[in-house]
Amino acid sequence: MTNEQAEQILKELEMLRKLKLMEMFDKGYSQAQLAQILGVSQPTISRMFPKASGKKKAQVND
Questions:
Q1: Which range of residues forms the domain containing residue 9?
Q2: Where are the beta strands (DSSP E) in 1-62?
């Protein structure tokens, strides 16, 4: 396996991780719960979410 192939696999895994986090968030998990599951801080989870996700939630509540 080349370094380029390994880097591509890592990028794909990171994308899958983010998609799973978004799915869990949409199912009602809080950022604090997701942080606890992953063993990271809540601010780390917050940085993983695109800015649009906060706007999406705000629009739903309007």
A1: 3-61
A2: none
For 7-51, the pLDDT digits (tens) are: 999 999 989 988 888 899 899 999 999 999 888 899 988 887 765
pTM for the full model? 0.60
DSSP state of 39: T
Q: Is 36 exposed, middle or buried (0-12, 13-18, 19+ CB in 10 A)?
A: middle
Number of domains in the chain: 1
The first and second tokens of residue 15, run together, are: 């994308």
On the question of pLDDT at 55 being above 80, the answer is: no
Q: How far apart are CA 19 and CA 31, in angstroms?
A: 14
Residue written as tokens 């880097």? 7
